[in-house]
Protein 1
Amino acid sequence: DTGVSQNPRHKITKRGQNVTFRCDPISEHNRLYWYRQTLGQGPEFLTYFQNEAQLEKSRLLSDRFSAERPKGSFSTLEIQRTEQGDSAMYLCASSLGGGGGEKLFFGSGTQLSVL
Amino acid sequence: QQQVKQSPQSLIVQKGGISIINCAYENTAFDYFPWYQQFPGKGPALLIAIRPDVSEKKEGRFTISFNKSAKQFSLHIMDSQPGDSATYFCAASMMGSWGKLQFGAGTQVVVTP
């Protein structure tokens, strides 16, 4: 499977715990995005990387959230001191970038439940 | 504040019928308008996209109609099939940030046999 891979698929945690998600993009893609999706809503942009550089972060991304993409390969999204409001599907997408529009390839997401 | 408003929230169409989903936007800086299809337990997948320099784009049974002056665009699914049952999202983004998409709230489409 050469698509975007996300692990774990599901994560249940208690409020106050830290969690980390991993995303493996399509190998030749230089851009990587994180989105969050709650039930019945469209995905919301969180942050994106071009290679290893984090170029933009949404105002939705509080200080408890941090993302990395070492060496421009896989990426991790960490949430510290989780809150119940963090419960959502966290989606990763990758793309080649380029002009005229940008086709994002999404993974199947990590479903986070904070109890 | 949702920058892209999508309607209807859900629709039921018979096999062979036409599904129509509408979206409206406010930000005139938006320059790229894709539609994504999402099945349960999966991430969204790009279906078709349009830039504002054309008023219509067709790919197979899927057509986007774009009205720049009205700031509206729509997805038409012709000859709807049960396999088209999914949630559809319109989205918009700006030049230079094409991957930073503003999604609509989604339309759940059910195609009955």
Note: The first strand of chain A starts at residue 5 and ends at 7.
Protein 2
Amino acid sequence: GIQVEQSPPDLILQEGANSTLRCNFSDSVNNLQWFHQNPWGQLINLFYIPSGTKQNGRLSATTVATERYSLLYISSSQTTDSGVYFCAPRGNQGGKLIFGQGTELSVKP
Amino acid sequence: DTAVSQTPKYLVTQMGNDKSIKCEQNLGHDTMYWYKQDSKKFLKIMFSYNNKELIINETVPNRFSPKSPDKAHLNLHINSLELGDSAVYFCASSQTGQGASREQFFGPGTRLTVL
């Protein structure tokens, strides 16, 4: 099956800093989602991005499917950005999402 | 509100008991999923139903039995609960088929603790 690797595993930022989270996957995928799991455990959809670049406020994401990676950019980070960020490509079998191990982000005031 | 909802939010029970978790979506989606998140926050698919038909059944013990009475509901029944079943269980839904985006939306999760 598809292997998904996210980096870095942990990240501590000062409020206002920018960061880039990376997601590598081992095989071709049909699409890819980025989620933010907030400290209350909710999984919040950030991007549905099989290829190309999308922007939503301070966040943007780029997926280069041919090179099997996706990037999530967080600019001007805020304390409310803290939590775990998951990348989840969808493989070709049955529509299941295959989650990476996540990047745990802590933004300090 | 349009959403994926789950009940209960928390479930604390003794080993050996049988329990159920319910999931409902009012997004009009045709496919629903159960995912399990373990204590290390690793998320993994358990089951998927499309229009009430089971399409994904990962290597999950047969103590876990999903049931889909209609395409808006997917319940998870767990028999003879074990300590290792303690986890957060997430329900999700998506629209599949020609031209559909297939983006999955998740419920708030059910935290199951087996004592």
Note: Residues 6 and 23 of chain B are 4 Å apart (CA to CA).
Protein 3
Amino acid sequence: GENVEQHPSTLSVQEGDSAVIKCTYSDSASNYFPWYKQELGKRPQLIIDIRSNVGEKKDQRIAVTLNKTAKHFSLHITETQPEDSAVYFCAASETSYDKVIFGPGTSLSVIP
Amino acid sequence: GAGVSQTPSNKVTEKGKYVELRCDPISGHTALYWYRQSLGQGPEFLIYFQGTGAADDSGLPNDRFFAVRPEGSVSTLKIQRTERGDSAVYLCASSLVEGGVTEAFFGQGTRLTVV
């Protein structure tokens, strides 16, 4: 089955700096890669996703890249703000409506 | 409300007891997922329904766990003979499969504590 690894497990950045979270996956059949943000005590919420026919996708301060050959994908947050502090999960799935396998999470702290 | 609703929000039960956790998906969403999240970990897949049938139940840890969705809407996750290791937040999510593009929306979860 699919296995998703994620690093770093914790990340602290100064406000305004960039944050990068990297993930790897094992199943070459995976084609859908969502990223979720989970604030303390709250539900995971989708922030961006990418499909295997696309190498990069941007949405304002957030960008994701995908290297399907190497089975790597990354989340980039620019101009970080304190409200970006949360746990971020990468995930992989064969399609956008199949079971989604999550990574272990990265706890991001943005220091004002 | 328009979101995924899970009840109860908290459940404390004694080891060996039976529990049921309920999920009300977003109206019209055909796909429903159950996940389990332990402290400091990512959500762990349990089971996925497409309509009334379980499309994939490969994540259920053992035969003490069972889930149903008899009318293709509300789902119930049932855990028999609970063990302390079952303590976790149980998350439900739903999505609308339309044109292959969909987002899964999560509920707030049920925090299960087995004492």
Note: Chain B touches chain A at residues 31, 33, 35, 40-45, 48, 50, 56, 58-59, 91, 95, 97, 100-109 (CB under 8 Å).
Protein 4
Amino acid sequence: KQEVTQIPAALSVPEGENLVLNCSFTDSAIYNLQWFRQDPGKGLTSLLLIQSSQREQTSGRLNASLDKSSGRSTLYIAASQPGDSATYLCALLSGGQNFVFGPGTRLSVLP
Amino acid sequence: KAGVTQTPRYLIKTRGQQVTLSCSPISGHRSVSWYQQTPGQGLQFLFEYFSETQRNKGNFPGRFSGRQFSNSRSEMNVSTLELGDSALYLCASSLVLRRENTEAFFGQGTRLTVV
């Protein structure tokens, strides 16, 4: 059974810092990994999708990497802004037809 | 291109009642999945439909059911509501071509409160 953890659970940084969010998973037989952000009380917004054959994906200030052999993915956010404050979740598509989600990292970027 | 639409956005129900939630996927997407999100359990998978067939089901009691129509719109139903069913219910749609590039797009959710 796929299990996903995210470290840290919460993070508070001053504006302008570069930061890294971590996602770990137990079963490396995945099809893809997706990073989402969620604002309080809202739905999930897709940020990046990394297919199993890929090592990383980039979108603007965001860069996500995937290392299946070690069961890890990282989301790198460059030059953080207050608008980046949200909960960030990683999710994996493996054997079944559903994504398995991590518990999320709650990020606060202070002006 | 319209996103995933969930209705209603908010619901308040009484214990013992039943509720139906609706999800309209992105045009052309044939896969619809439902998730329950609570502060204690995080995001948990309920079920997934593809071309009107339930392909996968999570570990929820039989009070939770769903269906998908020929236009890919989906509904989920919860009968005999319990206080613990209070949650944000999220729907996701996907254009499934190959597993590797299956990307989930979520709606804004339905906030269900059971009193």
Note: The CA atoms of residues 33 and 92 of chain A lie 4 Å apart.
